Amino acid sequence: MDALLIDAITQRIADLQDETGLFASFRHNKTVFYRRPDTNVFFTAVTVFTLQNLAVNLPAKSRQLIDRITQRASAAYPNFRNKDGLNTYNFWPTRPSQHFSNGYIFRHFEHFRIPDDIDDTAMVYLTTMQTPADGLWLKAKLAQHANGSRGQQIKNTYPDYRPLRAYSTWFGKNMGIDFDACALSNILYCIYQYNLPRDQHDADSLTYLRAIVESGRYVANPFQCAPHYARTSLIIYHLARLMAAFDIPELEPIRPRLIEDAKQLLSKAHNRLEKILLSTALFRLGEPMPKVNLGGIDRDFDTFHFFIAGLLTAYQQSWLRRFANRPLMQMRWQCEAHCWALVAEYIVMYDA
Questions:
Q1: How far, rounded to the nearest angstrom, does the alpha carbon of residue 21 sit from its chain's CA centroid?
Q2: pTM of the predicted structure, to 2 decimals
């Protein structure tokens, strides 16, 4: 491993962290020439998570930088904690609410004020030290908002998945039930990491993940399977990360399909960050690490996004959801620090 290169990348990430402990990110919709800086916890937490998982294999200088990055990020997390003080987390600051931060229009509408979610909560838990009591509390909280709880059943998924008592993306009482394969992978990673007791909700969440791959739906319609990530490559990346970290027999049958589809997507990918995602996933699935040219890799950052928000995703009406996957109805998020973390992850694994 090129220690100087890794140290340089880690230093660049550290330099991108602002005085509040956050990493800058931007939301945009090129169709309407929209671009705004966005204040969120997700990209900070997922960047820290990626770096922490690499730290044991990094040079001493990089490890020290990651410790400092983590400490500064942790100091920012309380701004995103549940508005009533519960131990769940929101994408945007909560007290006061700053949904669609730095914007001019959407921040004035309550419709766009989202509840806390499993994705941000999982990443905060995974990058901090929570107590066993906190873990058990979260497990109970997840069950309260899972599909089928309180008489609510998911409407915006395939009919054969609607009976599954899988975890919903949202903790809000008034938000529709939502299945997202990447968010489910992250909360399951958290549950396994904290060794929390497993139940029907976990089993059905794994069933959903296995089913979307076995059916091929995650290739044919990734937006329907993961509406907040909406790309097959990202679903593969998240599943591979979960499967590499833990022994999960329920997911083993889909390993060959994930490998086959990752190779096929890799052969067609143009953006090198996309190639890095797929190469990293293949390595985690037990395949040789494909070579990606990293020269001037930052030139590919502007055409890469890791996360989206569908402006119509939350609606349950089928006639509205028909338009939800169109680019006009989506915001895409970019974060330079997270892109560099993905590059560092690839380099460390390639030299493993």
A1: 19
A2: 0.93
Question: In the CATH hierarchy, which top-level class contains the domain 3-350?
Answer: mainly alpha
- pLDDT (tens place) for every residue of the chain, 352 residues total: 688 999 999 999 999 999 999 999 998 787 666 678 899 999 999 999 999 999 999 999 999 999 999 999 999 999 999 999 999 999 999 986 655 556 545 554 444 558 999 999 999 999 999 999 999 999 999 999 999 998 889 998 999 999 999 999 999 887 889 999 999 999 999 999 999 999 999 999 999 999 999 999 999 999 999 999 999 999 999 999 999 999 999 999 999 999 999 999 999 999 999 999 999 999 999 999 999 999 999 999 999 999 887 554 554 545 344 544 555 456 889 999 999 999 999 999 998 7
Cα 52 to chain center, whole Å? 16
